[in-house]
Amino acid sequence: MPVLSFLLYVFIMSFTPGPNNIMAMLFANQYGFKKTLRFCLGVGAGFFVIMIVSTYFNLMLHNFIPKIELPMMILGAGYMLYLAIKIITSTTSANDDESGKYNGFLSGMLLQFVNPKGVLFGITVVATYILPYHTSTSSLLLLALFLGFVGILSTCSWSLFGSMFQKFLSNYKKQFNIVMALLLVYSAVSLFV
């Protein structure tokens, strides 16, 4: 396996803005890093499941990708636009318990199944870097664990940024929410461009 190329691809895909990272930063800004950690762990667990599914069904999916790709992109883009609308219209405060219901492990995990960036990343990293070089169950499991861990690291990094600048960002909450919503809209639009 070309390790450097693999690691660069994983780093770029994991740490660039996408639904996971944007939501983690937004949640950390609203609720703090500690309360957002559940979401980050959910993202990692969900991504681990995506990697396992991508690994073991990659050959089967390869025949159906042209049929699955467009509906998955539409569903994912629709979900990202929904999140953007929820962010831009958000008027809740960090003390509102109802507003934190999406900042949990299950939400982070389920986000992976409608996150086209994550699903397409899983499919491509498995097809390009993993299956041509590794076929043993233990190595496939270890690589899936590694990629899930990278998912946790990337969302935690974005969460840390959101919590570190919580005081600054709280003064500019509306502008911050607009920027985060626009990044989600960009993520949704970039799927089709």
Description:
With about 190 residues, the chain is mainly alpha-helical. The protein has one domain (about 5-190). It has helices at about 5-15, 20-30, 35-90, 105-110, 115-130, 135-165, 165-170, 175-190. The radius of gyration is 17 Å and the shape is globular.
Strands, total number: 0
- Give the biggest beta sheet: none
- How far apart are the termini? 30 Å
Please state roughly what percent of the residues sit in beta strands, choosing from under 5%, 5-15%, 15-25%, 25-35%, 35-45% or over 45%.
Answer: under 5%
List the helices and strands and how they pair.
Blueprint: H1 3-15, H2 19-31, H3 33-88, H4 105-111, H5 116-130, H6 137-164, H7 166-171, H8 173-190
Helix pairs in contact: 1-5, 1-6, 2-3, 2-6, 2-8, 3-4, 3-5, 3-6, 3-8
Sum this structure up briefly.
The chain is mainly alpha-helical and about 190 residues long. It contains eight helices and no strands.
Keywords for this entry:
single chain, 193 residues, mainly alpha, 8 helices, 0% strand, globular
